[in-house]
Amino acid sequence: MNPEVPQNKPARPPAPAFPLPQPGHAARLPAGLAPEDWARIRQAAHALPQVLVPDDLDDGSDKSADAALDRLGCIQISKAAGGGRPSRWILPAHIPVALAQLNATPLTNTLRPQMQQRLQQLESLGLRREGLVFTRLCIHPITLAHEAWRIDLSHRVPVQEAPVWAFFRDGDTAALRHGLGQAPEYSYTAELTLHLNHLVARSEAMGDAAQLASLLPRLQAECGVPMPYADLKAALTRAQDRWEQTVEEQSTLASLGRELAFQGYPDSFDAARKLGRKVTLYLGPPNSGKTYAAFERLAQALDGAYLAPLRLLALEGRDRLVGRGVPCSLLTGEESVPADNARVVSSTIEMVNTRDIVDVAVIDEAQMIFDDSRGWAWTQAIVGVPAREVIIIASAYAAPAIERLLQLCGEKPEKRVFERKQQVQLMPAPVPMTHLQSGDAVVAFSRRDVLMLRDQISQNGHNVSVIYGALPPEVRRREAERFAVGASQVLVATDAIGMGLNLPIRRVLFSTLTKFDGVGDRELSVSEVHQIAGRAGRYGMHDEGFTSVLKEAEADAMKILRTQLPKEPRAPRDFKCPVAPNWRHVQTISQRMGVNKLYAVLSIFMQQLRLDDAHFAVAELEQMLELAEMLDRNAAALPLNERFKYAQAPVDSRLPMLVEQFASWATNHARTGQAGDPYFLDEFDQHGRLDRMEQALRICTLWLWLDLRFPGVYGHVEAVVDLRGRLNDGIERQLKGKRPLWQRRGR
Predict the structure, then answer these.
(1) pLDDT reported for residue 366
(2) Is 651 in contact with 660 (CB distance < 8 Å)?
(3) Which residue from 146, 369, 574, 630 lies 20 to 30 Å from 129 (Cα-Cα)?
(4) What's the gap between Cα 480 and its chain centre?
(5) Where is 38: in which H helix or E strand?
(6) Taking the model in full, what pTM does it have?
(7) How do residues 191-231 score in pLDDT, each as one tens digit?
(8) Is residue 121 exposed (0-12), middle (13-18) or buried (19+ Cβ within 10 Å)?
(9) Where is the Helicase C-terminal domain (predicted)?
(10) Are strands 414-417 and 278-283 parallel, antiparallel or unpaired?
(11) Of 323-332, 531-540, 685-694, 696-705, which gets the smallest average pLDDT?
(12) What is the CA radius of gyration of the chain?
C-alpha cells in the first residue's frame, strides 16, 4: 500500500452539543439553552446550590435516589465517581436560576465556601432544604390557662424558593427576610391550646402541686420537635400519661410499655427521677478549662462519680483526685480497684451506677452521645445517674440535644460556658516531615500509618512516642508521659489524642484529612477536626497553638483543613438519642413474650417494639446479636441473664482467634460451670511480635472483663494481670526501640 495515498477513514460522529451521562435527558433541557451555558453549569456543579445529589432526597442508597431523581424529571449532570463523589442532578426549571447564580457569583476558588457559608446562614434562620423544597422553622408561643404557662411551638412550613435563590446570589439577609414575609400562623393553634389546657387540667386535678411543675418541660420537649398535628397531639398525650404514671406509680410495676421504657425511657431510672437533680452543662472547646473546673467541684463533694469515655481517662481521673487527697476507687470494664474510705468512683461511662445516690457526678465528653456505637452509654448516664448535682462536660454544639434529653426528664439545666485560653492558628503552608520540631503531634488514622510515620520520623533523628487504639491504656499513658517530659520530641497518634489527654503539644499536624469509618474512606467531620486540632497550645504549657498538614499528605489535605477549621461543629440533623437494652428490657420481653432465646429477645427489642420516635432510637446492636446467636447455640444451658452479660463482652468480631476463645469459654461455662484453664498464659510472652502481643492483651482484657462479671468461673486473675503487665512492658520496649515496626509481619 502506497503510504502517500490518503486513505478514506470513517468520519467521527460529531461531539454532542450537550454532553450528558444519559443522552435521553437532552429532551428535558430548556429550549434555547446554549451549549456554552450548559458547560458553565457542568463546570460549577460542585458548588452550585441549585444542583442536587442523592443525599438531598435521603432516599436510602445512591442507586435508588438516582432513580427517584430521574423520575422527578431531573437532568443528570455527572455520574458518581470514586473517592465518594456523588452523582449530580438539576431540575430543568433551575437551570436559568443556576446561570443567574453564576452571573452574580462567578466560579472561583471561593465560590464553594461562599455557598456553604450562605447555606449555614439559611440554617441559622431556620431554613433548610428538604427534598426538592425549602422549609422554614416557625416558632409560635402558646399561653396556657394554668399560671400563664408558655410553650414555644415549633413547626416547619414550605417557602417560596425565589427569595432563597436571591439570597444565594446576593447574601442580603434583610431582603431574604422581607421576601419570606411574616411567619404563617400555625393552622391548629386553637385545637392545640385546647388540648394542652385539657392535659394540664387533668394533671392539676390529681392534686400533686409539687410535681405539676415538672410537666411543663415535658410538654415543651414534645412541642419543640416539628411534627404533624396528629402526631404531636398523640405525643403530648403520651407525655402527660408518662407524667401521670410517674406520679401515681413510682413504686409499682407499670404497663409493659412503661416497663420497657420505650415510651418514657427517662422514667425507668427511678432513683434519678426522685432526686430533683441540679444539672449544669459545662460547655466549651478543648483546652478551655471545663474539665479542670468540674474536678474542682468533684473534689469538694461528699461523695461522687467521674464517668469517663476511656479507661485511660478513668485512670487519669482517679490519679488526679488522689493527687488532691481525695480517696478514689477505679471501676472499668475489666477491673475493680477499691480504695480505702473512697469518696469518689472514677469509672468508664458504661459502668455507671444508676442505683446508689451520690452527691456529685461528672459526665465527661458528652458530645459522644452522637457516636453510632457507644452513644447509648451517654444517654443512659445523662438520664440515669442518681446524683444530687450532675455536671455534664460537652462541646457547645451538643448542648441542644442534651438539653432536650434533660427536658424529657422534667429537668432544666443551667449552662456555664468556657472560652479557650488560646486560639489554634492555621499555619500558612504544609510542614515537611524533615521540618518537625519538638512538641509536634502528627495525626494518622490507622495503626499501620502511625507505625510507618514513627519509623520515618525516627530516621530524621527524633525520638517518637506513639498512641493508637490497639495499645493498652498503660502503654498509652507511658508513651504520653515520655512526650510530656521531653524524652521524646514528637508524638504520632490517632484521633485518641482528641479525647481529653493532657499533653504539651504546640503544633498538631494532620498526615491525612480522611479516615476509614468501617464502611469506606471519608473526610474528617468539622467536629473531628476541631477536637483534634484543639489539642494544640495546651494552656500553661505553650503560649499559642498551631495546626497544619504534613507536606507528604494528600494533595487537597490543606484545602480541606482550611475549609473545615473555620466552620462551627454541628449536631447531626434530626438526632435521636440512642438507647441499648438493659436487663430489665430483656427480662420483661422474655416473660411477656414467652421466649428464652437471647437472639429472639434482642430482635424483638430492635424490630417490633418502638421507642418514642421523636426522641429515641435503638442503638446499633449488630455485634450483640452475633454473640447472642452463638450463645443460644453453644451455651443455651446458661440462664438468660448470664447469656445477656456475655453478649455485652468486648469481643472484636474482626479477630477470629478472640471470637474462638470467647466461644470456648462460654461453652465450657455452660457445660461444667467453669471457663477452663487460660491456655493463653503459656502461648504468649513479652518477647513476641508487636501485633501478637497486642492480640494477647485483648485476650487478657476479655478474660478479666468476664471474671469481673462471673466470680468463681474464670479466676487465675493474678497470673493474667502478670502477663498483661509483661506484655505492656514488651510493647513499650518495642515502641521505644529503633527497629522499624510497620514493615514487620502483622502491620
Answers:
(1) 95
(2) no
(3) 369
(4) 25
(5) helix 35-44
(6) 0.68
(7) 999 999 999 999 888 766 777 888 899 999 999 999 999 99
(8) middle
(9) 401-576
(10) parallel
(11) 531-540
(12) 29
